[in-house]
Design goal:
The protein is an alpha/beta fold. It is 35% helix and 15% strand. The chain has 5 helices and 7 strands; from the N terminus they run ααβαββββααββ. The strands form 2 sheets. Strands 2-1-3-5-4 form a 5-stranded mixed sheet, covered by helices on one side. The chain has a two-stranded antiparallel ribbon with strand order 6-7. Helix 3 links the parallel strand 1 and strand 2 (88-90). The chain binds zinc ion (ZN).
Length: 184
C-alpha cells in the first residue's frame, strides 16, 4: 500500500518537480553513505524508503495524542500515521477529532483536510478527504514539530516528504491536490 501510493506520488513529482524531489533524497544518501550516487540508485533507495523505518522517524521531542470518539472508525489509519514518528505515543496530550467534511475553521483555503492548531493543542482530520488517511494523520502529527516542506505532494519516503503542503491524487474529479493546513 505504501509503495503503491508512493510510486504514484513519485511519478507525479518527477514529472513536475524532479529536482525538488530528488534533491533531499540525494543529499541524505550522500551523507549517509559517503559516496556519489546515480539517479537509478536514488530511485531504488527512494522506493525502498517509501515507508517510515520500524519504530518511526526520530523527532526533536516526545509528544502524545488521544482519539476523540469521532475518530473511533478511523483509529487504525490514525495509529498507522502516528507510527511514522518515534517520539509520538497514544494516551493524553493532543486531542484528535475526526470530521467528514472540509475543515473550515483552520484558515488557509476551502479544501483543508487536516489542521493542527498550536503545534499540538488539538488536531482535526477530514478522514476520507484524501486517498491515504494514514498519510493525512502522519502529516498533521508532524506539525507537532515541523512546518511544511518544499515537496509538492506528500508521500512516505521521508519526514520532509510527509510534510509537503498537499496530498495529491485525492478522490475528487475537479482537483487532485487537497491542502493540509495548520495554524498557530
Ligand atoms: Zn500541513
Amino acid at each position: 500500500m505504501f509503495k503503491k501510493l508512493f510510486l504514484r506520488s513519485f511519478l507525479a513529482a518527477t514529472a513536475t518537480l524532479s529536482m525538488a524531489f530528488v534533491g533531499p533524497v540525494a543529499q541524505a544518501e550522500v551523507a549517509a553513505e559517503g559516496h556519489a550516487i546515480t539517479a537509478a540508485e536514488i530511485e531504488a533507495v527512494a522506493q525502498q524508503q517509501a515507508a517510515p523505518p520500524p519504530g518511526g522517524w526520530q523527532t526533536p521531542s516526545n509528544r502524545s495524542y488521544y482519539l476523540l470518539s469521532s475518530c473511533r472508525p478511523y483509529a487504525s489509519a490514525i495509529r498507522q500515521g502516528a507510527a511514522a514518528w518515534a517520539g509520538l505515543t497514544e494516551g493524553g496530550g493532543t486531542p484528535v477529532e475526526c470530521r467528514n467534511s472540509y475543515i473550515r475553521d483552520c484558515g488557509g483555503g476551502s479544501r483543508v483536510v487536516g489542521c493542527n492548531w498550536g503545534r499540538g493543542q488539538r488536531i482535526a482530520l477530514y478522514m476520507g478527504g484524501v486517498n491515504d488517511d494514514a498519510l493525512l494523520a502522519a502529516h498533521e502529527f508532524g506539525h507537532d514539530w515541523y512546518g511544511h516542506s518544499s515537496y509538492r505532494c506528500a508521500g512516505w519516503s521521508s519526514p520532509s516528504h510527509v510534510m509537503a503542503p498537499s496530498i495529491c491524487n485525492g478522490p475528487t474529479l475537479t482537483n487532485d491536490a487537497q491542502l493540509a493546513h495548520h495554524s498557530g
